[in-house]
Design brief:
The structure holds two protein chains of two kinds. By secondary structure, chain A is mainly alpha-helical. Chain A is built from nine helices and one strand, in the order E-H-H-H-H-H-H-H-H-H. Helices cover about 60% and strands about 5% of the residues of chain B. Chain B contains four helices and one strand; from the N terminus they run H-H-H-H-E. In chain B, helix 1 runs antiparallel to helix 2, helix 1 runs antiparallel to helix 4 and helix 3 runs antiparallel to helix 4. The chains are: A mainly alpha, B mainly alpha. At the A-B interface, strand 1, helix 3 and helix 4 of A face helix 4 and strand 1 of B.
Chain lengths: ~210, ~110
């Protein structure tokens, strides 16, 4: 049977951090937190689909139901074709899926995966948190679980940023050193090259950079 | 290969959906769902074969098709078609996950 091993240390710390932002210790909490948010959104979606009769809200009482049944929510239902809470479930599951995929050196080996993860977590997370806040102000009622998921989105943004930053720094250095869009694109897609390998080595050993 | 396994599970769910949503009397919808479910499972299974390792990427096309079909089935779409949108979006996310996603790509592995 053919046995293979990685050519690099998969758990090396990466500049500018003293740890590896792609390590499982960094990524698993993000995935678990995203799954918690997905579970909460599932509860909200089940109410919007009327598969459960009421929505749990220990703080604002029946205001949650008014938010979930609001004209804004119905309008979004008309646009998207599924309830906004169901779309939230899918978005948080996406955070978890893209968080779990990839090795512990994916910032170098699969930058496209980190960028996809970053797009799902950072801009979409901020937009969804702003939308939840806006909904509260526009609709005039508060939804406790919606606020919890919005808070989780912002925590995920904070937790995911280090890995996205390292990945963007790696890609920026590839372009800056080579001046080649082709090599930048190939590095983004996860193709190996001596130039990108050298830059990655410098990033995990910053004293030589 | 966990992405492929979950794609297969999504295929099984899609195949069972007409019965779960109680629309199995609509034979056209029933058969289209069965054919799409089979396509998803076949494409995911083919990815286990080295020669067809990228077959799962075709599931992204299937996923987009499911979303478009579901979204264009009404405003809002009936539940069976909302199911198509949800399965389509999930499939889209899983289909992009590479085989052996938790290991380094082949270029960064060496035989010992």
């Amino acid at each position: 049977m053919r046995v293979e091993k990685p050519v690099h240390d998969l758990d090396a710390a990466v500049y500018p951090y003293k740890y590896n932002p792609s390590s499982w210790q960094q990524r698993v909490p993000i995935c678990l937190m995203a799954l918690v948010a997905a579970l909460i959104s599932t509860h909200l979606a089940l109410y919007q689909w009327r598969l459960i009769e009421s929505v749990w809200d220990p703080v604002f009482g029946d205001q949650s139901a008014k938010v979930l049944d609001s004209d804004v929510a119905k309008e979004m239902y008309g646009w998207i074709g599924i309830h906004d809470a169901a779309l939230g479930v899918l978005a948080y599951l996406g955070d978890a899926i893209f968080g779990f995929a990839g090795s512990t050196r994916r910032w170098q080996y699969r930058p496209w995966m980190v960028i996809l993860f970053g797009i799902d977590v950072i801009p979409l997370g901020i937009v969804s948190a702003v939308l939840v806040m806006m909904q509260a102000f526009v609709v005039g009622y508060w939804c406790f679980l919606c606020l919890v998921t919005a808070a989780i989105s912002l925590v995920l943004v904070y937790w995911a940023w280090d890995e996205v930053r390292v990945c963007l720094t790696f890609l920026y250095r590839v372009y800056k050193r080579t001046g080649s869009y082709r090599l930048l694109w190939r590095s983004l897609c996860g193709y190996r090259s001596p130039e990108a390998d050298a830059i990655a080595e410098e990033m995990i050993q910053p004293e030589r950079a | 290969m966990w992405g492929r396994v979950i794609e297969m599970m999504l295929g099984v769910w899609l195949g069972l959906s007409p019965f779960i949503f109680g629309v199995q009397s609509d034979l056209t919808l029933l058969w289209i769902d069965q054919i799409i479910a089979l396509a998803i499972i076949v494409l995911a299974s083919l990815s286990f074969h080295a020669r067809y390792e990228y077959a799962h990427l075709l599931n992204m096309g299937v996923a987009v098709g499911l979303c478009v079909w579901g979204r264009n089935a009404g405003t809002p779409p009936p539940f069976i078609h909302q199911n198509h949108i949800v399965v389509g979006l999930l499939l889209l996310m899983f289909a992009i996950v590479p085989n052996r996603a938790s290991s380094p790509p082949a270029a960064w592995r060496q035989a010992v």
